[in-house]
Design brief:
Length: 307
């Protein structure tokens, strides 16, 4: 079991590394030569790089460090480690790809192919539990604290960045950048298997108390606990939890570490009505305290079970 766990970790970090390299290739060989911006920290870095000549890899590292520090105490430790690893690989390969011959100087080709390749790279990184851009970390933190939607928060950041790019480089560049962003987002969704901003997880387990505790402590999410009965397996406890796409990988880790026999179904949530309870304090459960069926104000409608 321990050996399998290490193998999974190696595969995850390898996947993040491959995704980071692919994303770097798209940015350095397609977007940068045509002054087309990516969103977030990288977009800011491209603007400053064009204005000052400072290395994009150095700017990416400098700008991402504060976001990692902010997220250290609030996000899962493994998420921060994977993100730092991905960002490091990303920055290193920016330097490696910089002197190479550009893939194209045609703007439309750069937008289409750059957006698709970038979406594949970023999608792989997120699929294996990492992150390449610090603004996404801030968006997740704001989601945890104030319930701001992650996708809308990232979009607001990027609209501000693209607007600034329009003022500096011309609004045609801003429109090219926005089009690239939409292409990247769609491809990223496909790579991540239909990854929407909000997901719902239903977990059938024999260790509901520990899994609930881990979800609360590591993800800051409450769960709805229900009684169930399997046709063959008999009495079961069912956990229901609403979370963001970035937290799915951490949830999988919790399940693997706590109860590998658990059954988990992840579905898309089209809409949430009501208050979504977040972590507000230390969860304390006595070891002999039984799991009780309780009600939650998490109410979801229009779910589409695509995973």
């Amino acid at each position: 079991m321990l050996k399998n766990k290490y193998i999974r970790k190696v595969i995850e970090f390898l996947g993040i590394a491959v995704g980071a390299v692919i994303a770097t290739f798209a940015i350095e060989e397609f977007l940068v030569p045509c002054t087309i911006l990516d969103g977030g920290v990288v977009g800011i870095g491209i603007m400053i790089n064009n204005l000052t000549g400072i290395s994009l890899s150095i700017l990416t590292i400098i700008f991402n460090i504060p976001f990692l520090i902010i997220g250290t105490r609030k996000m899962g430790k493994m998420f921060i480690v994977k993100s730092a690893f991905g960002m490091t690989i990303f920055s290193v390969f920016l330097e490696i790809f910089a002197p190479m011959v550009n893939a194209t100087d045609e703007y439309l080709l750069a937008v289409c192919f750059g957006g698709v390749i970038l979406g594949i790279g970023v999608g792989l990184v997120i699929r294996f539990g990492g992150c390449l851009d610090g603004t996404e970390t801030v968006a997740i933190l704001l989601n945890k604290k104030f319930n701001f939607p992650v996708g809308q928060t990232v979009l607001i950041f990027n609209v501000i960045i693209f607007s600034a790019a329009g003022l500096i480089f011309g609004f045609d560049r801003a429109m090219y950048s926005l089009l690239t962003y939409f292409i990247t987002s769609k491809v990223l969704d496909i790579v991540e298997s239909g990854m929407d901003q909000t997901k719902a997880a239903m977990i059938i387990t024999n260790d509901a108390k520990e899994i609930s505790r881990q979800i609360y402590e590591r993800l800051g999410r409450t769960v709805t606990i229900m009684e169930g009965e399997g046709l063959v397996s008999g009495k079961k406890v069912v956990l229901y939890c609403v979370l963001t796409r970035f937290e799915i990988q951490e949830l999988k880790e919790i399940i693997k570490e706590t109860d590998e026999s658990a059954f988990i179904a992840v579905s898309d949530v089209a809409e949430i009505i009501g208050t979504h309870i977040k972590k507000s304090g230390k969860l304390t459960l006595k070891e002999d305290e039984p799991v009780k069926v309780q009600h939650s104000d998490q109410v979801t409608v229009e779910t589409d079970t695509t995973e």
